[in-house]
Recover the amino acids of this structure.
């Protein structure tokens, strides 16, 4: 199992759709126009809520309430065991299951660390104001006991968009070299554009190298 995590709006859902097309062979050459996406939001599964505990459950509920207000108060009629998490199988050439968790589900991410062999953590390279929050999330993930043996790939997405800071400046600002040196995990980084497809082949190669038979 590979977890795909990151703050809301960093481009996780588009990344998965692009990787799926690229791995299927349909994406050879031009990937075409980006497919439509929707935020991965909502409630945790009942099992995940029980594992996360009452406090995390309350935080998640507050996040869902905020989402309902933003959506005009409408309630999404979905399977409660699937809301807030999407599963996608890609073949590179082994089958790898990528579990994407919505950014608003951050408080209950730990309930999904079991059987995680690799971690994709996405940051928004076009939004430096979100950098500090993403860094805090990253440090929390790297210090989690359940992810101590997971391989980690940090993706700086949206490099196709204009920004007043370069990716290298962002890495320096959050002292990423020091974080990598002190972490227990094997950590790699890659700059990508899920919109244009830049760097996605590197992500597939990393998944192939780090993920064994799917579990």
């Amino acid at each position: 199992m590979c977890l795909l995590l990151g703050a809301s709006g960093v481009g996780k859902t588009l990344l998965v759709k692009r990787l799926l097309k690229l791995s299927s062979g349909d994406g050879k050459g031009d990937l075409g126009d980006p497919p439509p996406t929707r935020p991965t939001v909502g409630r945790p599964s009942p099992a995940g809520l029980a594992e996360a505990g009452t406090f995390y459950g309350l935080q998640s509920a507050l996040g869902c309430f905020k989402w309902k207000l933003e959506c005009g108060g409408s309630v999404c009629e979905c399977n409660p065991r699937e809301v807030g998490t999407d599963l996608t199988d890609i073949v590179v050439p082994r089958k790898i299951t990528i579990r994407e968790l919505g950014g608003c589900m951050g408080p209950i991410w730990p309930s999904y660390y079991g059987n995680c062999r690799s971690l994709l953590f996405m940051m928004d390279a076009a939004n430096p104001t979100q950098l500090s929050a993403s860094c805090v999330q990253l440090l929390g993930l790297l210090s989690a006991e359940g992810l101590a043996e997971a391989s980690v790939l940090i993706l700086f997405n949206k490099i196709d968009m204009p920004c007043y800071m370069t990716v290298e400046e962002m890495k320096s600002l959050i002292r990423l070299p020091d974080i990598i040196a002190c972490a227990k995990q094997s950590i790699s980084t890659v700059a990508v554009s899920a919109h244009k497809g830049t760097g996605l082949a590197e992500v597939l190669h990393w998944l192939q190298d780090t993920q064994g038979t799917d579990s």
